[in-house]
What we know:
heterodimer; A: Rossmann fold; B: 2 domains; elongated
Amino acid sequence: MHRIRTVHRVITVSIAGILAACGGSEQRDPSTSENARAPETPRDATVYTVNYPLAYFAQRIGGEHITVHFPAPPEIDPAFWQPDGATVGAYQSADLVFLNGAGYAKWLDVVTLSTSRLVDTSTPFRDRFLEVEGTVTHSHGPEGDHSHEGTAFTTWLNPQLAIEHAASIEQALSARWPEHEGSFRDGMTSLEADLLALDSALVAATAAADSRPIAASHPVYQYLANRYDLNLESVQWEPDRAPSGSQWNDFQRLLSEHPATLMLWEGEPLAETSERLESLGVTVVVFDPCANIPAEGDFLSVMRQNVESLAAVLARK
Amino acid sequence: MKGELYLAWRYLAYHRVKTLILTTSITLIIFLPVGLRVLVRQSQEQLTARAEATPLLVGARGSPLELVLNSLYFESDVPATMSFGEVRRIESTGYALPIPVYVRFAARGHPIVGTTLDYFDFRRLRIAEGTNLRMLGDAVLGARVAEELGVGPGESVISSPESVFDIAGTYPLSMRVVGVLEYSGSPDDEAIFVDLKTTWVIEGIVHGHQELSGSGAAGLILTSDTANVVANAAVVQYQEITADNLGSFHFHGDQSTYPITAVIAVPPDQRSESLLRGRFESPDELLQIVPPVDVMDELLETVLTVEAFVIAVVVVVGLSTLATAVLVFMLSLRLRRREIDTMRKIGAARRSIGAVMASEVAAVLVVGVALAAILTGLTSRFGSDIIRSLL
């Protein structure tokens, strides 16, 4: 009896096993399913930028519909900033990252960001980039490739190009959040009006320049000079550092060929530097490129102040 | 009937070697073709799942199979490379999201896959431990790689030189492990993921080195003028990317000419896919665009043809084995004549004797079929895991 039950069990198991074998090969192992969908996780509309002008434009256009982040420390020049891993992680979390282009923010070459979320806002005018003169590159071996480091990147100092930056931002925001397209358009219209007014003010202010030689403390005014036909030559000085003896000698040699009577500075230079410049007949004009968040005001107020300062000096001379 | 079954059982148990051989033969006759069919079907599913999840692949003209195997399964020889500038070309069409991959190097037998963060989103790969790639030189390990190498976040892996004889070739690069992926059941578990730019560092196109300006650099300069400094071979290039030297890493030449092995193109819809494929139809086109599923279907068709032949052979062998088993049984009947006579003499009816013989056969068949069913069930359950580990 016991053995018969055993045989019956064996037969039952066999039938079950055959059925399992037939059915098993039809089942799809869910772990092989490459198309399993995770549930959509709603996120805030978050935007990161690589400099303050783009953050300002994005905020003006995006308004309440987006949160704009620009995490560079205020005392640092964003063009030469190197964010740490945690900050890069924050950039990775953004819905969109607005880039300046023209080689701005070298740190982008050494970090990993999702390329589908990067927006190079200078793409429409890539053919109008300006080269920096006097850059020393390096190569390896007699026939090695050269490194190209000579593109000027303070593109927003030309209000016409700033409008194109803003247009790229508006386009990207509208593509990503089409439900707010109308609002973005309104923001862009308002910003464009302000930038056009700024451009007109600069045209009026620089009309008095009339090919007059102008000096600059740092090679960051290429797009400003190009837009308003300024006869500009640059040195490489910092506002918070006194120029060395050899730098003064080089400057005087420059003045002999380029007799500038005013000099653009990114920030207020040291008093001794200003005094020595005055003694050489050169008036200091602070024209802040506003690459980082200003201590007071915003991008537009800083640029308006720049225009006033420049206009005042050009009108006098 | 109980008595007949008991006698049959006792006979089989006494002649256990013969019973084992017959049972094994029956098991194999059934399991071999069925199990083979199950394995092939599972392999087919595994291979096609990966291919079906990848809409289009763009690569240099050449073997589509090599392109697919290298880009999806990280196997086979490295196909001809294409230039990174083609990524922008695909992106500018607006027809697909381009995801570049560069699969050329390896570290301790595991392929190094240079790509972008979009790859992780596309393959739905999740971080189990640590973080995703952030900086140049970071590496994220597939689940199996971390297990086999016993390496986790905070440690490092070093890329293997391509050839021990090419001392002027690619430098081994020490890569910082920052994360480990969750097990995905795909070839991604066996790979080491790095930023595309990190693979270019391994290749030597991107590098960091000592400053070439300043008094300390005099011995490193071949020639110099006001516009360019030419470095000599004494310049030491960094083989590990740290926070201190990260800023020194730079690119030489035009990035759009840098090499990659393929671009995974992810179109949003069928229309975009068709339009994108149309862009690569020109006879002058130097690239090819392939739907991986078509390439794998072609490969599997060959496999299935071979499978059909193998199964046919197995079936023929099985039938001959069955015939041999029948012959064995018939011969054993002749050898058991005295035993049968004895049963008759002690009062067993012909029907009962027949039932004993039939029960012996049935028991062997039932056990054989049962074992075949169990083996087939095990193959079905674990076969996919085995195949995944082999793919």
